[in-house]
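Q: Could you fold this chain for me?
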Amino acid sequence: MILLDTHVVIWLRREPRKLSRDAEGAIRRARSSSSVAVSAISLVELGILLSRGRLRATGTVEDTIRQFVEEIKVLPVTIDIAVATSYFPLDALSDPMDRIIAATARAEGLPLVTADERIINCSWLKTIW
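A: Sure. Below is the predicted structure, expressed as structure tokens.
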């Protein structure tokens, strides 16, 4: 199983050409075994982007979020994930959403597909880009 960062979910549905070759390959392989996941916090991020007009809705906000995560498993934010957020240095990942996504990958032992250099530079995470 792999975990997708929020921007990767958006690019996968709307701008797949932005995905790196490695990311596209990892997603393709994981999809074949229904092993693609996102953190529940990514749904919150999608809602915020839609409400601010930074992402265009296709239908209702609910319909759009459901379309983005169609055939993708949504992982909850658990106590273990909440605790894991406290282990990351604030100067490395100051954004709370990024911390939760990174902590989800760490707690679940999943590689994180992301183009975010701050996350890629975190030596305690396995990333794909």
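A (continued): DSSP finds seven helices and five strands in the chain.
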